[in-house]
Amino acid sequence: MSKTELVEFIANKAGLSKADAARALDACLEGITSGLKKEGKVALVGFGTFSAKKRAAREGINPLTKEPLKIPAKTVASFKAGSKLKDALN
Question: Within its chain, how far is the Cα of 34 from the centroid?
Answer without folding.
Answer: 12
